[in-house]
Amino acid sequence: MACMNEDGQWIVLMGLLTALALFFLALIINQSALVGQTTAEGVLEFPKNDIRDLRLAIFDYYDDYGELTLLQQQHYVDDIVRISLERKNAVVYFWDGPQQDVSGRMLRPVTIHYYNGVTKYDETVYY
Amino acid sequence: MVNDAGQLYTMEGVAAGVIMLLTAYIVISTTSVYTPGDTHIPDMQLEQLGSDVLAMMDTPDNREEEESRLVVLVKGGVPGGDTLRTEFLNNCKMRAGGDDDDLRAQVYLTYRKMNGDVSTIQLSSSDPGFTGRENTVRVTRWVHLPRGSTYGLDNLDSSRPHAVLVEVLLWRA
User: Fold this and answer.
1) Under an 8 A CB cutoff, do A72 and B51 touch?
2) Is the pLDDT of residue A1 over 80?
3) Nearest to A57 by CA among B82, B111, B14, B44
4) B29 domain-assigned
5) Among candidates B173, B130, B116, B121, which has minimal Cα distance to B152?
6) Given CB 3.0 to 4.6 Å as the disulfide criterion, which of B30, B45, B54, B64 pairs with B141?
7) A79 closest CA partner among B98, B109, B163, B146
8) What gap in Å lies between CA B11 and CA B7, rounded to an integer?
9) Which residues of chain A have a CB within 8 Å of the CB of B23?
């Protein structure tokens, strides 16, 4: 290493630091596109319409609940459970509890379970 | 004669080469966003459109009206299926701009028979251009079928209300 000029080491060092900083910034920009894409896909793949539709079907059932016989109630539940399994590949079950006084209205707690192999959804709604 | 000068220059050169290669790689991969299989995005748009149209058809026009258009058409059974498809497609094509003549649909209905079996029937008549290789999306809608007679639905117990599933296969020809 003889005869080497040792001036300007600070400039070289700062150059290296800037290069490293740019490297990490580029890495972050690079990853951000991927992160955004997977998040958006996760949102899009959530079976929002299926769950909304299922809830509506169940609420339709509870609209008619009072005037159905026990056997007819069982048939209607079987309609939803079995057709969901066969045509929608979703395990669906729902049941209700006794009516309760909720802010002056008599509502029954309806528990809904939905699982299509990817998304699991459980809720208890007073209807 | 080999001398031992310039070793640091060699190392520096190697380091600079590595940094340049990495930088080139990072810069190129930053500007190109890799999205595997983008076809599902227009598929999802079509799915959302179909789903919205079914939801619209399953909504009664006003409070006095008991049954939605979709319920009426499903009760009509197999002959009502073609009407259902035509109205469904007309609703899908309601948009600004030119006619969207490429949209095709096929309607299926799933219900439980009197003996409890699940039965799927084709409501609309077969599309003559359907090859089975189309890139289709499937939209579904639960329909609350009230008591009362239906037409063309085999073995349906009309003494009780039913939950039936309307499935529409939607594709662009």
Assistant:
1) no
2) no
3) B111
4) no
5) B121
6) B54
7) B163
8) 6
9) 19, 22-23, 26
Range of the domain at B50: 40-172
**Six token digits for residue B121:** 């029937």
Residues of chain B found within 8 Å of residue A57, distances taken between Cβ atoms: 142, 144, 163
**Mind listing the pLDDT tens digit for each residue in B137-170?**
999 999 998 888 888 788 888 888 999 999 999 9
Q: What are phi and psi of B52, to 5 degrees?
A: -65, -40
**In chain B, what is the greatest distance between 2 CA atoms, to the nearest angstrom?**
107
Residue B137 belongs to some domain of the structure: yes
- B75 domain residue, yes or no: yes
Structure tokens at B106: 């096929």
Question: B134 vs chain A: nearest CA distance in angstroms?
Answer: 20
Classified as helix, coil or strand, B13 is helix
> What percentage of chain A's residues is helix, strand, coil (to nearest 5)?
60, 20, 20
Give the chain A residue nearest B161 (alpha carbons): A76
Q: Measured at the alpha carbon of residue B128, what is the angle toward residues B127 and B134, in degrees to the nearest 5?
A: 65
Chain A residues near residue B153 by CB distance under 8 angstroms: none
Sole residue written with tokens 């030119």: B98
Q: Helix or strand or coil: residue B143?
A: strand
Check if the beta carbon of residue B104 is closer than 8 Å to that of residue B173.
yes
**Is the ipTM above a cut-off of 0.95?**
no
How would residue B35 be classed by pLDDT, with cut points 50, 70 and 90? low
Q: Is the Cβ pair B144, A61 closer than 8 Å?
A: yes
Nearest to A95 by CA among A74, A79, A115: A74
Residue B12 lies inside a defined structural domain of this protein: no
